[in-house]
């Protein structure tokens, strides 16, 4: 879009002393002739862009031209840059790059180093530890499909390992807890669903487009996927892991005992992950309710005990 390109050129010129026309042409994937026509339009709008000759020459806005930069405070800019750079570590989006460039342009030259140092102090990386390049490519593909309102074909494996083929209308990417989810309208279920991104297989973006339906992920955020129900839990945690419990749960979910142990009441998806989570805490967590889960955990623990009582021979 030409208007967006004109604004981006102005921002780049504000942020840099000199810019070569060829560099602008390469950046916006247009011809040098188009860039010079854009410069003429910018000049007609009252922003004085001049051409400087010599080795360090190029296009630049005259030094006497001033832009009011007081709309945002320096702390506002630091916060916005930290968030945008964190998001762009996942998506590598040109529009986000342009937004970052625009915000940098609003920072006075004598404060550039200050902002750079403070942005480096706060790093927001929303990709899980050990994310592969393939996972990042999948995220970028989904983001592009969302932006273009394009229908997707996916193979999906739910929390129980059951596979299904879905045709979905992708709406929103959500990072919740430690994982990415896709909020989409599912033609198989004729309703909105949340799909865990790392369970999506064989992602294919179709040329078919769709009109976004009314629906927000906040209304579905208690359902990690369409086959999982929630389970109400009451767990007694040892005082030894008090700091971990207080970090994970809201104060309203906790009851403190005189001995220092903590009773937590909360909900989690009713799947194998709950069992793995509780077992990972060892003897620092005891399920009080429901009895069904308590019985299941006891059987699991007995099975593990029998397994480790066996003598093994390593060849």
Can you characterise this structure?
By secondary structure, the protein is an alpha+beta fold. It has 4 domains: 2-61, Arc Repressor Mutant, subunit A (Orthogonal Bundle); 74-121; 133-219, SH3 type barrels (Roll), CATH 2.30.30; 230-309, Alpha-Beta Plaits, CATH 3.30.70. Helix content is 40%, strand content 25%. The protein has 10 helices and 11 strands. It has helices at residues 2-15, 21-28, 32-44, 74-91, 94-105, 112-121, 133-147, 242-248, 272-280, 291-309, and strands at residues 49-52, 58-61, 150-157, 163-176, 179-186, 191-196, 200-209, 230-237, 254-256, 262-269, 285-289. The strands form 3 sheets. It has a 5-stranded antiparallel beta sheet with strand order 6-5-4-3-7, covered by helices on one side. A hairpin with a 2-residue loop joins strand 4 (163-176) and strand 5. Helix 1 (2-15) crosses helix 5. The termini are far apart.
Number of helices: 10
Query: What is the CATH domain class of the largest domain?
Result: Mainly Beta
**What oligomeric state do these chains adopt?**
single chain
Major β-sheet annotation:
5 strands, antiparallel
β-strand number: 11
Q: How are the strands ordered across the major sheet?
A: 6-5-4-3-7
Q: Helical amount among residues, as a percent range?
A: 25-40%
Query: Looking at CATH, which topology of the largest domain would you report?
Result: SH3 type barrels
Give the terminus-to-terminus CA distance: 68 Å
Computed structural class: alpha+beta
Please tell me the total number of domains: 4
* Uncertain regions spanning at least 5 consecutive residues: none
